[in-house]
């Protein structure tokens, strides 16, 4: 919703001021289809040439997420921390082997399904169960597991950041493609030097629309989407850091209620539940 509002404000201010100063919007509208086809076609071709198909698909999926609200909020994090508390409390009371069935089949686990928001999230459950499985096996210490977690989180961040980098490169190239469209327009104008000044003026004006559109598309559309997508990537990474911190605190001997406090502290302040909110929620569950 805010993406659409932002674009609407930008377009209203840009074109509103242009018209208010006596600008002829018909010149832009006349050149728009040709210039947009040139710029979009060149940008799309370069985008496909510059990225692997997995990055193209991830970028398309990421653009779809830009128009949706973030799923990473206080309610989700309270579910996550309550899930971590329940599974760690069960392991503490009944022994690590008691959570083996929960780890092997989280979709049938009463503990995981108690919190469907995170319990049915494939990436979250896989991350949790993989390291709980290592804890159950008892073959790795906390430092070794921390190193593995860091490597996996870094890999996840690199994969999730690829669409962001692709959009940023696209935003950087759009002004250049606008110049290409403008140069073609100038070439076309130079081939018509025998025309009256009024006609030549219109042709030059249409050519300059290409430069204008390239810059506009880069800094009003592509670059903001890349920035928004990067923020969503950081939100997703913060969830894994929360899980990592909680599990490591548990491995170091802290009680579940203290371990989830470690995890709570790494969350962004706007999404972080207070100590009291989390305590009440866990007790209620």
Automatic annotation (TrEMBL):
Residue intervals passing through the bilayer: 32-49, 170-187, 199-222
InterPro entries: Flag_MotA_CS, Flagellar_motor_stator_MotA, MotA-like, MotA_ExbB_proton_chnl, MotA_N
Membrane topology qualifier: Multi-pass membrane protein
Major localization class: membrane
Start and end residues of each MotA/TolQ/ExbB proton channel domain: 125-240
Alphabetized Pfam families for the sequence: MotA_ExbB, MotA_N
Subcellular localization(s) per the UniProt record: Cell inner membrane
This protein's UniProt keywords: Cell inner membrane, Cell membrane, Cell projection, Chemotaxis, Cilium, Flagellar rotation, Flagellum, Hydrogen ion transport, Ion transport, Membrane, Transmembrane, Transmembrane helix, Transport
Domain Motility protein A N-terminal: 4-95
Classification via PANTHER family: CHEMOTAXIS PROTEIN MOTA (PTHR30433), MOTILITY PROTEIN A (PTHR30433:SF4)
Listed NCBIfam families: MotA1
Family from the record: Belongs to the MotA family.
Name this polypeptide is given: Flagellar motor stator protein MotA
Organism: Roseateles paludis
The organism's taxonomic lineage, starting at the top: Bacteria, Pseudomonadati, Pseudomonadota, Betaproteobacteria, Burkholderiales
